[in-house]
Amino acid sequence: MLTRVLAAAVAGAVAFFLFGFLIYGLVLDPLVMKPAMNPEAAKLMNDPPMWAPLLMSNFVMAFLFAYIFDKWAAIRTFAGGLSAGALIYFLITLGMQLMFMAFMNMSNSLVPMIADVIGSAILGALVGGVVGMVLGMMNKREGSPA
């Protein structure tokens, strides 16, 4: 189980990094997030980001997906991971964005919050699909039942 989960987590972390760059780095951040950011909040941003915490975050979230999929949900397909990943990451992001809204003045509108929740659901779906697919491939290789 541990080898399967770690392999899926590594694949998921790579997917988080690559798809996150495409969704956030190329689309949402320059087109939606930065233009609507409160100028005082913009001063708090690291530009460029700190890479070590970013990579660790990607791995931790991918490990969460892999553990849930392997231990509790028995997800072993791209399609199963797609739907579960979308729901999990949608709920995590929605909860965090509502918390940010309650305690911080980060943005001038609700558009970045909505965009982040939608972007995260798409990102979670793609990563969940990768994690589910890797778990399925590892399961077949080990010859163990699903």
Describe this structure in words.
The chain is an all-alpha fold. It has helices at residues 2-36, 39-42, 51-73, 78-103, 111-142. α1 packs across α3, α3 packs across α5 (111-142) and α4 packs antiparallel against α5 (111-142). The N and C termini lie close together (11 Å).
What is the fold's blueprint, element by element?
Layout: H1 2-36, H2 39-42, H3 51-73, H4 78-103, H5 111-142
Helix pairs in contact: 1-3, 1-5, 3-5, 4-5
Topology as a string of helices (H) and strands (E): HHHHH
Number of helices: 5
Task: Round the mean pLDDT to the nearest integer and report it.
Answer: 94
**Which bin fits the share of residues in helices?**
over 70%
Instruction: Tell me the distance between the termini.
Output: 11 Å
Q: Which residues form runs of ≥5 with pLDDT under 50? A: none
Number of strands: 0
Concise overview:
This protein is mainly alpha-helical and 146 residues long. 82% of the residues lie in helices and 0% in strands. The model has no long low-confidence stretch (mean pLDDT 94).
Descriptors:
146 residues, single chain
